[in-house]
What we know:
The structure is a single chain. The strands form 2 sheets. The chain has a 4-stranded antiparallel beta sheet. Strands 4-6-7 form a 3-stranded antiparallel beta sheet. The protein is of the alpha+beta class. The mean pLDDT is 89. Helices cover 48% and strands 19% of the residues.
Amino acid sequence: MNKISTSDIKKLRDLTGAGFLDCKNALDNSNSDIDKAIEFLRKKGISTAQKKGDRTASEGLIAISTSQSNKEAGIVELNSETDFVARNDDFQSFVSIISKINLDQKGNLDKIMESKYNNTKDKVSDALTNLISKIGENLTIRRSEYIISTDGFIGSYVHNAEKDNMGKIGVLLSIKTDIEYSKINDFLKKICMHIAAANPISITSADIDKDIINKEKEFQIEEIKKSGKDQSIQEKMLEGKMNKYFNDVVLLEQNFVVDDSIKINQFIENTSKELNGSIEVKKFVRFKVGEGI
């Protein structure tokens, strides 16, 4: 058996990021051939990743990348099993690279997985497998989205930031406006912060899925019936309950978290007048780590 040199082990570690003993074992099994050792580690990584694939990964990070024009942006969620790994430098570096690829691929998760990783010959899917092997936890690229504003700008906000543009909650907001970005930037940030805190499900009540509204009505009717009040009073109670529901979940009808004396639609109207221009909210995206898992 060939004696494995320390320099070869170091070289293999630098190329793959694998541990000392894993690199030594790979070189042992490859007659000190670096290329074969890399392939050995790749296969070992795939096996390790498969074993860990059934374990729940509900921690992690949300990351956002925005174009220089502030007219395009992408948001992506990457999950780990523990928050400890979410603070790991290797994981955060991976998240940062994937975030940029997400913007380039316009939020298409399949294309992200097939993209070249960080100017290497590896695909993102390969790099993910290797990272799982190195870190020792199940890791997933769970979801991604992309928005564009051809007649306005994109705002963004990351809450509980671990690093720049990475945190536990991420928000993108698209507006149509004729106001310059430098003047509208503060407005965009405040609305994004509001969305992060208030978690609306739609821009207007008309945007809410009819099934969701019907289920909410059914729930409220059952609760109101318990009051035993007259039918006419029950109808007024239902109207009041539904108005409160819309106030809770509809962005334009929510009380502004920065100033709860006004609603978001009033804040938009006030800002439009102040900046002498028009503002229309077109779309928003809000990701929170682990929601729905």
